[in-house]
């Protein structure tokens, strides 16, 4: 048996690799540089062009670009009409923002449990948590895999709920051939550097509904309309008049971020294909390792995977998740855990959310870590990650 790096052995690779990173090419640099010398550096033609491109890529009728994915979710909560006294159902196995957007508008997040194999929100658990206060569902395409749209849609229709998809992980993913972004009432994207494509910070919201689109725009731009056709005052005093119609925020994206994202979008297919190839290679490598459990995919989802999660099979390994994680790190493969269940955070604990709420999510959390997955990884990088997993599994195999 090989000596683990954590015990003084030689690491499987000499340079540290992280779980994710962006890929910025010369074309992206040029696009940003060109945008900076134009007439506008915010709210200009590149933002408009980006929103059109996002509609093309997602198949949505409308797109609003915003400054980050969290702002997208906040606007979605506003457009869905969530407020004090309302409940919004989401998953605990996500980034905090998926739940926080309810709190921003004074509503209450309610956590439904996840499917133990796909790790996505369980439609039965959504239904079990519906009360007469429930107004919306935020379903997260966890790791990029599409949620069970058909069943969740049916539940939301039956109970009159707005269905918001947190697709921060899932640009490029399709469900039954339809791209994420065009399927449900509102879809939110993030373009943070670890996500599939990036604008540094950035986000977008898509919808097919003109009324939701109007609300999303207003929420992200101070609640202000510049279009006289939409004015409450039908006789504005002059051409300088704009109207603040609701309370909104300044969540705009700049033109140079839009230039970067538009350039990145042209490479979405390439990035997506590379991610899929790496996922296939990992799946193949772990298929005959009962010590490692991999995420199950539903056949409806054609997934552009954002994260690759391995789950340790406790019955087959004699180490803790912490020991495995630290051993990977010593082999120079820096993993991360996605995610600590949201309601474990002090903010939620102080508000009365108790551990034990979602047993599946909690059990999954205990044994998972995300291994490196990003398009710029070379085949050698991929093989070194597999070698590190194998080496540590060999050492701790029961
Ligand atoms: C990244 C992420 C967000 C937030 O996006 P930001 O752009 O970082 O604000 C929201 N939800 C999920 C699931 C995410 O992964």
Strand and helix layout:
Layout: H1 26-36, H2 45-58, E1 62-66, H3 69-79, E2 87-90, H4 97-104, E3 108-111, H5 123-128, E4 134-140, H6 149-159, E5 162-166, E6 174-175, E7 178-179, E8 186-190, E9 203-207, H7 210-220, E10 224-225, E11 243-244, H8 255-265, H9 268-286, E12 292-294, E13 301-302, E14 308-312, H10 321-330, H11 346-349, H12 359-367, E15 368-371, H13 379-396
Helix pairs in contact: 1-8, 2-8, 3-4, 3-7
The structure holds pyridoxal-5'-phosphate.
Pyridoxal-5'-phosphate is lined by residues 68-70, 94-95, 97-98, 140, 166, 168-169, 190, 192, 203.
What does this structure look like?
There is one protein chain. This protein is of the alpha/beta class and 398 residues long. It has 2 domains: 5-19 and 268-396, Aspartate Aminotransferase, domain 1; 26-265, Type I PLP-dependent aspartate aminotransferase-like (Major domain) (Aspartate Aminotransferase, domain 2). 36% of the residues lie in helices and 14% in strands. It contains 13 helices and 15 strands. A 7-stranded mixed sheet has the order 1-9-8-5-4-2-3, sandwiched between helices. A 3-stranded antiparallel sheet has the order 7-6-13, with no helix packed on it. α6 (149-159) links the parallel β4 (134-140) and β5 (162-166). α1 (26-36) runs antiparallel to α8 (255-265), α2 runs parallel beside α8 (255-265) and α3 (69-79) crosses α7 (210-220). The radius of gyration is 22 Å and the shape is globular. It binds pyridoxal-5'-phosphate.
């Amino acid at each position: 048996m090989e000596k683990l790096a954590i015990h003084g052995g030689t690491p499987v690779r000499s340079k540290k690799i992280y779980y994710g990173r962006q890929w910025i090419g010369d074309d992206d640099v040029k696009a940003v540089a060109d945008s900076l010398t134009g007439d506008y550096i915010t709210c200009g033609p590149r933002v408009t062009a980006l929103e059109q491109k996002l509609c093309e890529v997602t198949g949505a009728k409308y797109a609003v670009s915003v400054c980050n994915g969290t702002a997208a979710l906040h606007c979605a909560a506003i457009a869905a009409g969530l407020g004090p006294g309302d409940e919004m159902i989401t998953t605990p196995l996500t980034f905090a923002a998926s739940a926080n957007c309810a709190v921003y508008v004074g509503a209450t997040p309610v956590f439904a449990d996840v499917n133990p194999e796909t790790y996505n929100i369980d439609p039965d658990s959504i239904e079990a948590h519906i009360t007469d206060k429930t107004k919306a569902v935020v379903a997260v395409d966890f790791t990029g895999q599409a949620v069970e749209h058909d069943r969740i849609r049916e539940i939301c229709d039956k109970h009159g709920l707005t269905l918001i998809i947190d697709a921060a992980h899932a640009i490029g993913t399709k469900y039954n051939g339809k791209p994420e972004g065009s399927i449900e009432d509102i879809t939110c994207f993030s373009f943070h550097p670890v996500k599939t494509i990036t604008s540094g910070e950035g986000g977008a919201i898509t919808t097919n509904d003109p009324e939701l689109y109007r609300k999303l725009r207003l929420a992200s731009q101070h609640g202000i309309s510049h279009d006289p056709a939409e004015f409450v005052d039908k006789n504005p005093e002059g051409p300088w008049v704009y109207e603040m119609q609701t309370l909104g925020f300044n969540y705009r994206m700049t033109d140079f971020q839009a230039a970067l994202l538009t350039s990145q979008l042209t490479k979405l297919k390439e990035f997506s294909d590379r991610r899929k190839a790496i996922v296939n290679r990992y799946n193949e490598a772990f298929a005959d390792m009962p010590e490692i459990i991999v995420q199950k995919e539903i056949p409806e989802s054609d997934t552009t995977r954002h994260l690759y999660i391995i789950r340790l099979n406790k019955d087959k390994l004699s180490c803790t998740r912490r020991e495995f994680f630290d051993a990977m790190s010593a082999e120079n493969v820096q993993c991360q855990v996605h995610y600590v269940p949201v309601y474990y955070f002090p903010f939620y604990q102080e508000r009365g959310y108790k551990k034990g709420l979602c047993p599946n999510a909690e059990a999954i959390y205990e044994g998972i870590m995300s291994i490196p997955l990003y398009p710029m990884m070379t085949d050698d990088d991929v093989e070194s990650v597999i070698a590190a997993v194998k080496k540590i599994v060999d050492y701790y195999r029961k």
